[in-house]
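[Ribosomal protein bS18]-alanine N-acetyltransferase
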Amino acid sequence: MLNQDFLIRKMTEADVDSVRKIELESFTAPWSRESFQLELNNKFATYFVCDFEGEIMGYGGIWIVFEEAHITNVAVSSIYRKKGAGKALLTQLVEIARKKKATHILLEVRPSNEPAFNMYKNFDFIPTGIRHNYYSDNNEDAIIMTKYLT
């Protein structure tokens, strides 16, 4: 298990190419390199990477606007899945939301992404709605999940 050895730190411009590689292998409608670069300059956004000896294992991002936080994405490279990186990133995202006084965190997850859905459930996110035809690649619905922090 690697979770004793990896580091969760803020994403930098130098990480964007590695993050983009993970994005491409993880999602059917991946964000562009420019999207990640813009996020690094978004004052409402915070992005973290999971770094194992200089290699990026995964990343996660969150927007926090007043009392509301929204997890934009969490992804782990296929070679590092099931080693605790996703849980470590999600823990860090929840912590930053608490520090910035958010009262709740929202995210969307595909119904077909059962591992992610179950991880969010284990972090006390609960299904609170459906966004119909949310994903543009196949019109799959999104399950809205919410974690209340108060």
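thats it. The beta strands are 7-10, 45-52, 55-65, 68-76, 104-109, 126-131, 142-148. The chain has one domain: 6-148. bye
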